[in-house]
Automatic annotation (TrEMBL):
<feature type="domain" description="Tubulin-folding cofactor D C-terminal">
    <location>
        <begin position="1"/>
        <end position="45"/>
    </location>
</feature>
<dbReference type="GO" id="GO:0005096">
    <property type="term" value="F:GTPase activator activity"/>
</dbReference>
<dbReference type="GO" id="GO:0007021">
    <property type="term" value="P:tubulin complex assembly"/>
</dbReference>
<protein>
    <submittedName>
        <fullName>Tbcd protein</fullName>
    </submittedName>
</protein>
<dbReference type="GO" id="GO:0007023">
    <property type="term" value="P:post-chaperonin tubulin folding pathway"/>
</dbReference>
<dbReference type="InterPro" id="IPR033162">
    <property type="entry name" value="TBCD"/>
</dbReference>
<dbReference type="Pfam" id="PF12612">
    <property type="entry name" value="TFCD_C"/>
</dbReference>
<dbReference type="GO" id="GO:0048487">
    <property type="term" value="F:beta-tubulin binding"/>
</dbReference>
<dbReference type="InterPro" id="IPR022577">
    <property type="entry name" value="TBCD_C"/>
</dbReference>
<dbReference type="InterPro" id="IPR016024">
    <property type="entry name" value="ARM-type_fold"/>
</dbReference>
């Protein structure tokens, strides 16, 4: 289903929703995608969701920042293959949608995406991911503390 959604996005089937900021369809689509990959360990599903999220970035308004946040969460994913795939697709996405990144920071964003070893240790990767968040004006993802058993 995610692969089909990626094809629909890539072929302009949802272009009608790009004119209006935060169109309810776009917001609902993001909610459904987040729910679909929540706590997933299915690499194919996660990879498909990366492509869908990158395609959804064409939507305008606050929903775009939320889509970027989801992609940046995937840049800090426990699976190195997901981090590398996300970085590669985000790189292509930035090239495709030139209005995503201010011209002043474009070179730095591109070099962080291409020069970072996304299969490195998580603390190193998350530092670079947070740098991207700052450059794009997206809130940094926060680690949610695990509940202490018996409390």
């Amino acid at each position: 289903l995610l692969k089909m959604l990626d094809q629909l996005l890539a072929n302009g089937c949802f272009d009608i929703f790009t004119a209006e900021e935060n169109h309810p369809f776009c917001v609902k689509l993001l909610t459904l995608c987040k729910e679909e990959i929540k706590k997933s360990k299915d690499i194919q599903k996660l990879r498909s969701s990366i492509a869908v999220l990158c395609g959804m970035v064409q939507f305008n308004g606050d929903v775009r920042k939320k889509i970027l946040l989801q992609l940046f969460l995937l840049l800090g994913h426990p699976f190195p293959v997901i981090r590398k795939s996300t970085a590669s697709q985000v790189y292509e996405m930035v090239l495709t949608y030139s209005d995503l990144v201010d011209a002043e920071v474009l070179d730095e964003v591109m070099s962080v995406l291409s020069d970072t070893a996304w299969d490195a240790e998580l603390p190193v990767v998350r530092e670079q991911r947070n740098r991207l968040c700052d450059l794009l004006g997206v809130p940094r993802p926060q680690l949610v503390p695990k509940p202490i058993p018996g409390s």
